[in-house]
Structure prediction request, 211 residues.
Amino acid sequence: MGLYCLVHVKVKICGLTSAADAQAAVEAGADALGLMFYAGSPRHVSIQAARSIAAALPPHIIRVGVFLDPDPSGVFAAIEACGLNLLQFHGAETAEFCAQFGIMTLKAFRLRDAASLLPMAGFQADAFLLDSYVPEKPGGTGETFNWDLALRARNFGKPIFLAGGLTPQNAAQAVRKVQPFAVDVSSGVEQSPGKKDAQKMRDFVAAVRAA
Prediction:
């Protein structure tokens, strides 16, 4: 079974920092939740905090660990502590690096032009996450990018997680245009960095499902 075995467009809500927000995301209808282990992010959680969040999640929720050029030992520790199902890499990790952990991997690419697509050729990951290119910011920028690039990225034959500036207001348009495997939202459903808004999460999921 691979990622394509599932049917409707999946919703991943990323950057959860509390069990209460995670529960609200589950109640809103999210399929996957992202835990940010990159210390430079305002949504960073320690392994101990992430363990508490993950322990309260129902088993059908995909637990995603988000990393940027991590030490492998930290990744293995997060997998064990949180029962991660999917690893998301946002840095300069190679395909060989991503493959060493024994679970599914999601490689992020920050897109600004057609040349940004070239590194996807031959990259062995289970899926690609497409995000906006903003200098000095690896993700969670709230900025959209040209979705025509996302359409071209589908030609590489991997399931696409579409990120970058998605909100309850533009989620349906994004789904209709790109037809991704999943959409990924963080800042678009927040009150402030790391603090989610329950109503925005409900509205976001409803918009995706309606599309």
Q: What stands out?
A: The chain is about 30% helix and 20% strand. The first helix runs from residue 19 to 28. The beta strands are 10-14, 32-36, 62-67, 86-89, 104-111, 127-132, 160-162, 182-185, 190-192, 195-196. The radius of gyration is 15 Å.
